Fold:
Amino acid sequence: METPTREQILKAPKVLLHDHLDGGMRPLTVIELAAEQGYSELPTHNPDELASWFTRGADRRNLELYLETFAHTVGVTQTPEGLARAAAEAAEDLAADGVVYAEIRFAPELHTEKGLSLDEVVESVLAGFRTGMANAARAGQPIIIGTLVTAMRTAARSLEIAKLAVKYRDQGVVGFDIAGAEAGFPPTIHLDAFQLIMRENFHITIHAGEAFGLPSIHEALQYCGAERLGHGVRIIDDITFDSEGEPVLGRLAAYVRDRRIPLEMCPTSNVNTGAADTYESHPIKLLRELRYRVTMNTDNRLMSDVSMTDEFEKSCRSFDWDLSDMQWLTVNAMKSSFWPFQERLDLINNVIKPGYAALMDS
Ligand SMILES: [Zn+2]
Structure:
């Protein structure tokens, strides 16, 4: 089959498992919230200039530098209104991009600078997602949002945040994650938090194998109970090639494939942070060929200046993928979501497969 057009990619049903609330705000919203709240740190008040400031700041080939740009999006989301607006707009923007199911994550502990409690932060975000879902449905592009509650791996509040995630599991929170600078902060620092989640039969995804290598992936899976890997791109370090050029999987790489561990891959973000050299050489191509449970994700739509449509357009062009590859990645993502099983099946059978079938027929 041929390379799909941008219009086909936009129309195709897409599923997103790895997207940060504070990394996906609209530039104009950041500016307006800053004005409302008297936040004076923004480098510019022109939306286009601000968008490119974020992208330039993010694309410095280093995870710690990439994360610096979040100071402003976090700075303007310290009120219930700011959080709810960011959440509602995220749902609307993803729906308009053809995303039918998304898990959006955020770290409540980052939004308490002006005195909000952790509960108020979570409730504001969940209310915003409900508004955004209702608006998207009214616009004829329904989307389901599952919320992931993230703890900062560089802080010491993960047990408290894990309890918070469990507390809101019946209001839209579907799992728990840790994020932030990876080197020096292995997942096992937060073992008590992960064990609480496991005892509660709740769900875990862990940012691992992005800026740091195999030990981080190993700990996430074998000590901390991760069901999915945020990025996981460094699993490539456990794959070598024999003299015939055939891939040879190390024990960890084999385990990840055998157990169908979902990889939440974010190629553009990986190029920005230096976790991958170029888009064209991104390991997602090989991992897809080796039939890992690969999924496609945006990570931070604002900082990396990407949408799901952009990401698939780039990957189809770079890796010679077509609509059937897109469908495979999308079904992988839906199967790997933390949404209830029956509703996952419904989305696969009643939304995703018919959506691709219609595009392939036309
Ligand atoms: Zn991330």
